[in-house]
Structures are given as C-alpha cells and as structure tokens.
Amino acid sequence: MEQPILDVxxxxxxxxxxxxxxxxxxxxxxxxxxGKTLGIVGESGxxxxxxxxxxxxxxxPTTGEIWFDGENVAQMKTRQLRAxxxxxxxxxxxxxxxxxxxxxxxxxxxxxxxxxxIHSTETEIQKRVLELMDIVGLAERLYNSYPHExxxxxxxxxxxxxxxxxxxxxxxxxxxxxxxxxxIQAQILNLLKDLQEEMGLTYVFITHNLGVVNHIxxxxxxxxxxxxxxxxxxxxxxxxxKHPYTQSLFSAxxxxxxxxxxxxxxxxxxxSSPINPPAGCRFAPRCQHRMPICTQQDxxxxxxxxxxxxxxxxxx
Amino acid sequence: MNGTKQQNDIVLSIKDLTVHYEVxxxxxxxxxxxxxxxxxxxxxxxVGETGAGKTTTALSILNLIPFPPGxxxxxxxxxxxxxxxxxxxxxxERVRGKDVAMIFQDPMTSLNPVLTVVDQVMESILIxxxxxxxxARERAIQMLETVGIAAERADEYPHQxxxxxxxxxxxxIALACNSRLLLADEPTTALDVTIQAQVxxxxxxxxEQFNTSMIFITHxxxxxxxxxxxxxxxxxxxxxxxxxxxxxxNHTKHPYTEGLFNSLPSIEDRTARLRPIPGLMPDPTQxxxxxxxxxxxxxxxxxxxxxxxxxxxxxxxHFALCSRxxxxxxxxxRKEID
Lengths: 316, 338
What we know:
Distance between the termini of chain B: 21 Å
Shape of chain A: globular
Number of strands of chain B: 12
Largest sheet of chain A: 8 strands, mixed
Radius of gyration of chain B: 21 Å
Order of helices and strands of chain B: EEEHEEHEHHHEHEHEEHHHEE
Order of helices and strands of chain A: EEEHEEHEHHHEHEHEEHHEE
Number of helices of chain B: 10
Oligomer: heterodimer
Strand order of the largest sheet of chain A: 6-7-8-3-9-10-12-11
Strand content of chain B: 15-25%
C-alpha cells in the first residue's frame, strides 16, 4: 500500500493562559493519502485552525509527530523546515487581512518564488507570475493592482496563486471560502477542485460549512474541543453519523429546500471551556445520551465499521 | 400579496423606495424603486449577496440611513398606515424600539460593553412603557428568562457571555416592548450552526407567541427555508423575484435566483459540479442601463442589456423582474418542484 503523504500522530497543542492550560488540540491523529482531501469540521474554538497551522509549524506543536513525505516535520530545524515548506502551503480564511496591503498582486505572488530561489531572473519570475495568474483566473491587467482595489473573490485567488507558486504537494485550506458570497464561493470551490485534479494536490480543508465539506472532501474528521470525535469517508459520515455531536451538528444544517428540515436535534448549552478540561468525554455536558461512565473515563477513538472511527462510550 | 381582502392586516408597506449614497460626486444606487408588503404574523426573507441593498432597506424602515452620505430619494414606508419617512424626530422615537425593533448581525458590537445586560433590556421599556424602574427591571428579567438567560446572570456584562448568549440578549431587547414588526439583519450569521439552530428555534417560538411580523435578512437560503413564509430576492438594489417560499424555491423564475441555488453544494449529490454565476455584481455607481443582472445572465438578449425590466406576475403572489418572460415559451433550466 502507498504510504500516506501526511501522517499526524498524537498532535497536542496547549497554550498557557493566566487561568490554566488551554487544551487547543488534544491528541489528534490522522493520515491523508496523496491527492486526497481531508475535511476538518467543527465549531469556533474546536482547534481546527490550530491543527492546520501546527502541520506547517506556523504554530509550534506541544507534542506529537507530523510525518510528511516520510520525514517528521515536528523535529525539523529551521533550515530543513524552510526547504520543506516548498511542499506545504496554506490558504487563509480572510482575503482581506492575509495579504500585505503594500504589495501588488505581482509582488505577493512572486515572494515565495524569490525566497525559495525557484527562478533567478526577473523575466522568468514575471513569466511564472503571469502563468499563475492565468491558472487561478486573474486577468493579466491586475498584475500591478493592490489588494484594496480588488473584491474578496479575486483576493482569494491571489492567496491561492501565492500558495501554488512554489509547486506544493499539500495545501492547508483554512476556511478559504467562508468570507465569500455563495456565487463567488462556488467559483473558488470549482477552482480548488480543478487544481487538485490537474496538479495532484492534497488538501487539508478546514471549515465550519458542512455543505462545503461534503462537496470537497474524501474523508471527514469532526473535532470537538480539541479532540477527534468521529472520522469516516464523506459519504459514510453524512449518511450514517454515529457520534451524538456529529448527529446534532449535521441535523442543524439548514437545507435550502421547502420542508427539508426534518427532525432537528437541538443540543442544549454551549461548548465548555478548553482550559483544564475535566476527565471524561468533552461533549458529555451537552449530550442527550450521557451515561455515568461518560464523565469518568475518556472515550477512545475506535473503528466501529471499516474506516469509520468514533470516540464515544455508546459504541464501546 | 395585494388584493383588497388582505389590505387590513398589512403591517408594513414599502412603496417605490429609492435610497442613494452620494460620495465624492459619485452616486451609489443602493436601493432602487423597491416595493413590498408584509402581512401580520408573517416572516419575509430578504435574500441577496453583499451589496444587494438588504441592510439599507432595513435601515430605511427605521429611517436610520446616515445622512450624509445616504439619502432617501423617494418612496413611502407605511407602518400600520403611517408614513415613517414623513415623521419628525419625536414621532420617530416613539416608533423605534416600540412599533419596530431591530436585531443586528453582530451581537459582539451591538451591545454596550459598560452596561449590564438587564440595564440594556430595561432601556426601551423605560422609554416606551413605564417610568417605574422596579417594574421595568422585573419585566426585563422576565424577558431574559424567555430567551433562556437565567435571572442570576441579569447583572452581568456582555463580555461575560458567549456569542449565542449575547444574541439572545439582543433578541430580548428587541422583543421587550412587544413590537409588531421585527427587523432581523443576519441574526445568526455570526453564530456556529448548533447555536444558530438554538437561536432560530427561539425566534420562531417567540414569533408564534407574540404574533410578530418579521423581515429576516440573510444570505443563507437554508435559513430562509427554515424560517420564512415569503421571500424577496434582491440584486443590485432591486427585488428581482418575490413570492411565497414555495413560489421562489419550488417554482423559481428569475435567472439570478436560479444562479444562487446552483452555487450551493448539494448535500444529496456531492459529486455534482457547482455552477457558479459568472462575473461579479455591477459597480453600484455605474449600474447597467438595462437589466442589472444581464451582464452575468446566460439567458440575456440584446433587449435585456439595453432596456429596463418590468415586473412580470406569475400568480397573485409570485413576481419576477425579467423581461424574457414576455416571450411565450421562455423557461429557465431549473426544474419546478411539486
């Protein structure tokens, strides 16, 4: 069997806060095969963005291994890491704040090419930038434009071109369409899918939009308070969600169809604090199936059917 | 929507509203010749993308358009038969918060950070209903409990609440004086989906309880299907299609509405390629001569580009701003759903 391109093992990221240790990411493990998309879903504060950033070491993980292409990124020295970043890139959520307002489209896209010394002459760099602009659907006349002159969709295309500039194998997409209107969102999703097909890219796709994750992912991982509560192939998890949190999350998606909103499971209460979380299942305080064991013992992620993993005492 | 037999229960009637923003000699045509009626106890969804003019429309209803640069150029907004746009400040202040209340999108910025939540709910009760602080406080606490906030937390400050709880406080403020009309501007957009489900559920229950009419502004067609009775789709300052929820969702007529549906990833058919609307919304300072959607519309003809559209009716309730329907056999691709 082919080795997965990314193999994350027991990733943890704790932040020190005045009130205690904040468990942002708490023992997350997953693998992604070459050319596939893993969707990471969850609500605000569940640790999905932190996970994405830890993979690239934009945030230093507290513990854990990140095996990318056979090497452990978590152990790399700065120089090695810089070289490795040629292969792993990120697209950020907010195309308004993730671009340097003083740089033109050309400068922004060219930066990675220059830093990594992929091309040496100015003509080559220009040629490459124009090629990238063409790939992501930016008109050539925008070459010298500044971000403030462009709308959200075009800015996000710059973000994508910048990521593609160094020919990466893996792109972490952190809510890349959440700030965009639906008609523009659809344009960007189609672009990302086309690029994946043409270039064999692997995506870690972080989003809270379940319609989007269903559309773009091969596999879905559901996070709750820093932990992986359920993971399965996209079709399987949408057809057959097992964890009570996943079930209520999916049932809360408003569907754009008359009378489509069947029985919704409305969960009570709110996400508890990630600071010094108590033992047991993190979802237990809101769970309608709570049993005594749930507040005493951590549920372990177990494979309930082939390729379908759930961390819930109901299934153990 | 019209028809004399229903005339009496119309809470809000907007007639030919045009709002412009004038900046640096340029004119932003934010809302153009907009008309709509809202009947008692109904929820009207105002749908559209950024810059369509949804919020401007809502602010006009409270006569809150900032001047300058905003200016209501023409139109009438009749609330229970009285024209809001002709009222003086004193009259307006009696209406705002009492007859019409508003819920803003962002609960993080629409609450005052230095006042306790109960004080903020009391404010409109004290202005409109009673001068007794004790009574106002009692009613405010009752209102907070109605939206699911325990009385013990009434004296806390907004920063001590989560986003969902803050939005509940905003809803409590809006409902404190039993307004007949509620304007909700993207009330759940800033919230997570499980919290959104809680808040929508609450709003629908309260609507039933108080028989409030509501204008619900959103860009999320899923939310519309869940809460609205009627729908008006806005594009570049105009209502391009309006009708009942069934009319607009199951018998879609306008190509823009079709484009919105095609842009949504389908939960059932996940492999289907999305069909986005090509291009971008026109610059509101330079709206096209003819149909504003024509430059992006796959059905557009020469005539669409050069001449203004007229509204075409399909039934007593269903209208679309698309001249192609003047042709006998014109249909769009989206299938009708029975």
